[in-house]
Amino acid sequence: MTEDGLKKVGIGPWLTLLLLGVAYFFSLLDRQILTVLVEPVKGDLKISDTQFGLLQGFAFAVFYTAFGVPVGALADRGNRKLIIATGLFVWSLSTSLAGFARSFGWLFAARIGVGIGEASLAPAAYSMFTDLFGAKRIGRVIGVFQTFAGCGMAVSVAIGGILFQKFSPLGAMYLAGFVLPPWGMTLAAIGLPGMVLAGIILFFVREPVRERVAEQAPDGLPMRTNPLIPTLLGRRGFFLRLLAGTSLISIASFGVLTWGATFLIRHFQLSPAKAGVRFGLALAIGGIVGPLAAGALSDFFYRNWREKAPLIVLTGCNLGLLLMCFGLLFAADVNLAVVILVLFSTFISGTLALSASAIQLGADGSVRAQVSALWLCLNNLIGLGLGAFLVGAVTDHVLGAPESVGISISLVGIAAALPGAILIASMLRQRNPDLSLSEVPGSQSDLA
Question: Mean pLDDT, consecutive 10-residue segments, the chain of 448 residues?
């Protein structure tokens, strides 16, 4: 330990952070790539906004959810790097296969594969980071990790628009008996690097030694069964409120992430390439600034507020997110709209980093990956599933005008994020702090 109580770490943990961060980059790249290909995919496969919302939302989210907690349980006991490498290969291959789709059903199945594969990454990675870096540095580490996700979202729309523009003059390509339209070539190319990275992680990342865990459940009884349920029900509902609040907020987050580029295309008549570059820039700026600033503030407040530190900063990010939902209603100029989208991205990426930090500080090592997996599953099932779907449904069936998608983003966002923000803010009124990572019996991560 150093004098300030931080764990000493060598180059190995930082290399692990870098490689897993790049994997997270490809995770968001493969997940979000469809958002800039809305119009060509719809036109080629003859699908509606509602169906596209299902492709981008439930096709991914339902199976991400179904596999998330079991994979998290495996990560709490098994080889986490092997789990991550396998999942990375599966979702990258599925992204490439999506490019060969000639029907809604095929594309739906490919998106299921992306969801199954991506369920492996974040829960296992968060668990590894806590063992590698300790409690007092976890906010900044997760903040750095989250910046790769922000860059992945940014590059997905930027490179998606550029690649589609480059492939468009080629027309359809015939490969192994399949017809690849320009959007199909884009998807096929995007999935290839991730399959290579899976092998690099398998051979160059070392599985860290696990932190010792508590031998008692939160109610003081011996730990005889899987501790997930006792953890969720204990500590005065800490995790239940955190999961519920962040899930509601994620509806607003994924609404703008899924439909932001389409808003620029339809409302301001931009081309997919121009909209992709602008939206990608907004996501890149916010995706870097948000988690780094939020993680640094959380670690700063940790000295006095312990596990409440990320909740304090999270409350501020939630208020900012709500303000941006209102602001988008008045974005009459494309430059103002891009500024609002930058702030949207900043607050969204900040909330993700802070939620992950709160879980790492509050959960015992025997259940940390499972709680993280459950949080991510709910965020994707409720946030991505409902956020993407509801915005498309409101546009189709309530407003009845494709160019009104920006209004749909705002209405859905306000309706979901407001109760979620209130629920998170109510956790700050709790008089006695919950059990934090440094107070878990046997924990070594925070001992001076």
Answer: 50 90 92 83 85 80 83 88 95 93 89 92 90 81 88 75 84 76 90 94 87 50 61 76 91 89 88 83 88 88 77 90 90 91 92 88 79 85 82 88 88 92 82 42 32
Please say whether the beta carbons of 329 and 407 come within 8 A.
yes
In-domain check, residue 3: no
In a domain, 446, yes or no: no
Residue 189 belongs to what domain range? 11-207+227-436
Q: For 41-44, which contacts have Cβ atoms below 8 Å and span 24 or more sequence positions?
A: 41/107, 41/183, 44/181, 44/183
Q: List the CATH number of the domain containing 290.
A: 1.20.1250.20
- Three-state secondary structure call for residue 180: strand
Helices within 237-271 (DSSP H only): 238-268
| pTM, full prediction | 0.76
> Within a domain: residue 327?
yes
Distance CA(241)–CA(38), nearest Å, equals 35
Domain count across the chain: 1
